[in-house]
Automatic annotation (TrEMBL):
Pfam families: FliD_C (PF07195), FliD_N (PF02465). It is found in: Secreted; Bacterial flagellum. Homopentamer. Signal peptide: none annotated. Belongs to the FliD family. InterPro entries: FliD, FliD_C, FliD_N. Residues 236-495 form the Flagellar hook-associated protein 2 C-terminal domain. GO terms for cellular component: bacterial-type flagellum filament cap; bacterial-type flagellum hook; extracellular region. This is Flagellar hook-associated protein 2.
């Protein structure tokens, strides 16, 4: 850095003079910085809008576009402690009568004798005679599946074998320390029955396959059929019941018929009735929440495009903030950040599309349906900018009468917009708007500015700032060089003056 001489000869406050000169020259730089700050605010406000659009789109997808929202039903049973019924995916109401003769049961087996001597431990190494064997067991679909239990000489213990069986096979194994025996239970209920022959043949639901010496340490029969005959096991059993006059069976006590799930709990040989009806309160709640969130969204969007823009309130520079209190800065920024999205074309467009989607009928006349038929209409107060109101009584009636028609109003598919449901039109409008906003303001995860419009503008401001700061540094250096030269010249003149004065004094 060049030597700077500050007013030593001239007596002038050159440092203050340079500072004031540079302050004047920095005004264009401050304007660039202010433009950059305003652009950052605008970018952030766009991204906030994008989050709001995304949240509402997700709500629409997760509720109004899911048939499960509209097929919720309340189911009554004359004996809910014996038989419970719930809807899974039935779109129509259902009713029936059921008489339970037998519940489904899982096959079991137990060790015939103690598997360990009283002084032995589950973690003791298995005898050398133990070797690999296979467990065959009933599967969820009523077929058999096999699992190979591997015995490693010098490593496998009773505990490791039981852990392996429990984790990987279709059987649960439990060691009872009181009796010293192991109880085996099939993970799936039901029996193995071949109905393709007459009379039907029955198999075993649990079977140990291999040389009996390999699994002799378990002290079990070869299968649960033999064990049942010898009093150390039971056969698996299907649930047997009569449904609307038809006697039938199921492998499990819980099963589905025509889109609803039946769970058998007691076998009591009595007729149990059940029926369903739309869960009006639940469906009403979903529709009401959707409408409420729609109203919040359009209120927020309208606020954004109608917000006052205060042109006289530019972003504060760091120098300006130094002379203001925190409260003054806060109040200034409230006006400076206002109106960043005023009259924005993207937001105006999506608002128009959303209103159109909500107000247009779905389907072709005379079979078309609209929100007004459900009691959902646009507010007559123009100041509310298209908010929706709900006639709850009318909406309840529509849901109770035909919840599937309500679903179709929101989620119907089709090739044209007029055939598509309201929620499908909305999500399309929201997705288009989000793409446009992302192209202009980027996404939350954007790390490179040159991928979106405002990002490229911010990069441009950064380049301008850098170039301007370089110019200011050069300019400040030039001012100091000039003032330093002036000081040196004055100092030299003063020295000469002093010298001449001394000369004249000597001559006299």
């Amino acid at each position: 850095m060049a030597l700077r001489i500050s007013g030593l000869a001239s007596g002038m406050d050159t440092e203050t003079m340079v500072k004031e000169l540079m302050t004047a020259h920095r005004i264009p730089l401050d304007k660039i910085t202010q433009k950059k700050q305003y652009t950052e605010w605008q970018r952030d406000d766009y991204r906030t809008v994008n989050r709001s659009l995304n949240d509402f789109r997700n709500l629409t997808n997760d509720s109004m576009l899911r048939q499960s929202t509209f097929i919720k039903k309340t189911v009554t049973s004359s004996a809910p402690d014996d038989v419970s019924v719930k809807n899974i995916n039935s779109t129509s109401d259902f009713s029936g009568k059921i008489n339970v003769e037998k519940l489904a049961e899982s096959a079991t087996m137990q060790s015939k004798d103690r598997v360990l001597a009283s002084e032995a431990n589950l973690k003791d190494i298995l005898p050398a005679t133990a070797d690999d064997f296979i467990i065959s067991s009933i599967n969820a679909d009523g077929t058999l599946e096999e699992y190979n239990v591997v015995i490693t000489e010098g490593k496998s213990t009773m505990q490791s074998v039981l852990d392996d069986i429990n984790k990987n096979s279709g059987v649960n194994a439990f060691f009872d320390s009181f009796t010293g025996k192991i109880a085996f239970t099939a993970k799936y209920s039901g029996d193995i029955k071949d109905d393709t022959v007459e009379p039907p043949t029955y198999g075993s639901e649990i079977e140990f396959i291999g040389n009996e010496a390999n699994f002799a340490f378990l002290k079990v029969e070869v299968n649960n059929t033999v064990a049942a005959k010898n009093g150390s096991g039971t056969k698996g059993q299907n649930a047997m019941f009569t449904y609307n006059g038809l006697t039938t069976e199921r492998q499990s006590n819980t099963f589905q018929i025509s889109g609803f799930e039946i769970s058998l709990k007691q076998a009591n040989q009595k007729e149990i009735t059940f029926s369903s009806a739309p869960d009006v309160d639940s469906i009403l709640g979903s529709v009401t929440k959707f409408v409420d969130e729609y109203n919040k969204l359009i209120e927020d969007l309208n606020t954004q495009i109608r917000e006052t823009k205060y042109k006289d309130y530019q972003p504060l520079t760091e120098k300006e903030k130094e002379s203001l209190s925190e409260e003054q800065i806060k109040k200034w920024d409230e006006k400076a950040t206002s109106g960043t999205l005023k009259n924005d074309s993207i937001i105006t467009s999506v608002l128009n599309k959303m209103r159109s989607a909500m107000s247009s009928a779905v389907g072709k006349s005379p079979n078309s349906i609209s929100l007004s038929q459900l009691g959902i209409t646009t507010s007559s107060n123009y100041l509310e900018n298209g908010k929706l109101t709900i006639d709850e009584t009318k909406l309840r009636e529509a849901i109770s009468e035909d919840p599937n028609q309500v679903y179709e109003l929101f989620a119907a598919g089709g090739e044209t917009d007029s055939d598509k449901g309201i929620a499908r039109r909305l999500t399309k409008a929201l997705e288009d708007a989000r793409k446009s906003i992302t192209a202009k303001a980027g996404s939350e995860s954007a790390t490179v500015n040159n991928n979106f419009v405002l990002g490229r503008l911010l990069d441009g401001y950064d380049n301008q700032v850098k170039r301007f700061e370089d110019r200011l540094a050069t300019m400040e250096s030039r001012y100091w060089k000039q003032f330093t030269s002036m000081e040196k010249a004055i100092q030299q003149a003063n020295s000469q003056s002093t010298y001449l004065a001394g000369m004249f004094s000597t001559g006299s």
